[in-house]
Structure formats: structure tokens, C-alpha cells
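Q: Second attempt. The first request was missing the SMILES, so the protein and zinc ion are both included now.
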Amino acid sequence: MAGCRFCGTVLSHTFVDLGMSPLCESFLTREQLNQMEPFYPLHAYVCARCFLVQVEEYVGPERIFDDYAYFSSYSDAWLRHAQSYTDMIVSRLSLDAQSHVVELGSNDGYLLQYFVARGVPALGVEPASNVAAAAVAKGIPTTTRLFGRETAKALVAEGKQADLIIGNNVLAQVTDLNGFVAGMKTLLKPGGVITMEFPHLLRLIDENQFDTIYHEHFSYFSLMVAQQIFAAHGLILFDVEELWTHGGSLRIYARHAEDTSRPTGPRVAALLAREKAAGLDRLERYSAFTEQVEETKRKLLQFLITARREGKTVAGYGAPGKGNTLLNYCGIRTDFVDYTVDRNPYKHGRFLPGTHIPIFDPEKIKETRPDYLLILPWNLKDEIMGQMAEIRTWGGQFVIPIPALEVQR
Ligand SMILES: [Zn+2]
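A: Got both inputs this time. The predicted holo structure:
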């Protein structure tokens, strides 16, 4: 086993072992169903020294980002989140036409479009060429590069130093964590601010969100771990907010250690105290996670076995990465779930990795009228239950697998 991605300590403590799984964004074409499919161990460890939860990197980011299927703009709730963040931060930092905003992992420009609309100069840095092209087509300046120390130096040389650096759900996907954070230190103007959002490890543990663990997510952060990593690179976390996104995320605010103009707010110490009270500074809390995960699998399988024995039909909703972790770990294939649907046309006619469940347009639900709709992106369940309210007209019910199995009319 390799060393900790942050501190180098040899990893020997299991957080959870989810068995063998394919890359969760590798959607298959019909031709690929007849080919060999690579599976990799999905085994999360916790570092005994710094408590960073992490999975080993089996494939380089080039492979993962080459044909990345996730387009942020396909979720309405996510777009509203991006817009309200823009309103808040533009006002909080008094950003204007003289400012420069850089987003790392800017995807299809789902967020920067709101800065551009307000006349704040912005640049996206996005490694996946197909989503970067979608952003450029929308008029969002975007450079197709993987961010790190060298990219940061190059951007500074191009006069692109930032008043605000944004990174939403990107920190988890960074293989060279120290290089990435060091790069932000270089790219940030002296009085600048970094905000980053990432799923909160405390929520993952408390709410059993093991399906958010996948090969493309290398690291899982608590505030205490993030604070250590940023501090090691001369950056101070001066504020934190808790968000509803991705089942419970943190938005951290960082500044240069040398910048004394922004004192640390009370929310940082309060959340650190809660994490400590929850046991996140002790290995025992992490090793207890496995039993929770196994019980979730037993409950979901029990429900599906009963439903199928009663002759009921089950369809899935969504084809998110987390759905693939759940389905592969539980061994759920077309023997339990006939098909799934997704709003992203890229996925139509393709198949889920590993389980080979076919993906259709959401219209398919109305045609086939399933008894149960298994909501795979459970973090967006309210939005989805609203969109799919029609299933109630034929007596269909929603099944929400996480945090605890729930069946709703
Ligand atoms: Zn460590």
C-alpha cells in the first residue's frame, strides 16, 4: 500500500472495503458489453497520522478525464446553487470588472457563466476537453489543463493571478494534493480569497454515504484535515459554511497566512469542536464504518428480493457515479433493476459500468410504469420526486436507498 497522499505515512487502517468496481464514469456502449471490463479495488483507508480518508490511485487522471460524462448543467438545483453563490461572493468580496476569478475544475461553465453575466472577468481551468469545449461554446474563457504547481506558475506569468479562486468538488479528484494546494498559494493575489466546496466527511460517516466513495474521488475531507493541508502550504482557513449539496458539503474560505485583514470567524472553531466530539480524531470512529455499510447493503437487497418475488417492477432514476458504487457493491444488475433513466443525452443508449443496466431518456418511465423508482442521486431526491410526481398516478413509489432505506408514495 502506498503512503498517505498528504503526509506520506504508510496506510494500514481500512475505512471501508467496497470490493472490486469499475470506474464509475465509464459508461459502456452496446459493443463494449462484449468486451473485457477493467475492475479495480475500491478500498478506502484512513491515515493514522493526519486522518485523511483516501483511496489509492489506480488510473491516472488522463484516463478519467479523457471523455468525462458529467455535465454540471444538467441539474437545476445545482445551477441555482451556483447562481446564489455568485451573488453572495461578488457582494462579500466586492468583485467588479477589475477583479479576476479563476475556477479550478470549471466543468461546462455552469458557475462562471454567472460571473461573466455580471461583468466579472473569469477563467475556467478544466482538464476534460469535451466539457471545456462546451464552456468555450457558451462564451466562458476556459483553458484545458490539469491544475498544479506548474499550471499556477504559467497562469501567473500570463497575468492571470486571482482575487478569487474557486474549486467546487475538485479537491477530492486531485491526485497530487500537495501540488494542487501549493499551486493555489502561487495563483492567489496577496489579498485574495479561495473558496472550495467538498463533501463533508462527518456527514459521509454519520449518514452512511459510502456510495460517494469511488475511484475518481481520491480523498475525503473533514475540516480538521483540510485545515492541516492548507496550513502546510501557507494558507489559513478563516471561515466555513455547511451546505446541503452532495448530501452535506463544506465551503471553506482560505487566505494567505500573511494576510491579516481577514480574522478567523467563530464557525471554524465551532465545527472543529463538533468533529472532535464526533470522534474524527480517533481511529476507532473510522473502523466502525464498515458495519454500517454492510447493514445498508443487506436492507436494500432484502427490499429488492421481496419486491421481485411479489412480481413488482423496479426502474432506476439517474446514472450518477454514486449509483454505480452502490449497485456494484450490492451486486444489483438487471435481475433487480430493469433499466435506469437520465436527463443527460450523452448517457442514453449506454450501459452502467459493471452492472450493465441500460440507460434511457426519462420518458421511458411513463411508457413502462414501474412499481418502484430507485433514486440513485438521493442527494437530489426532492427535485427528482417533483419531476417524476406522475408515477403516483399509476401507484408507483419512490425508493431512496441512502442514508437509510425509505419508500415514499
Ligand atoms: Zn496522512
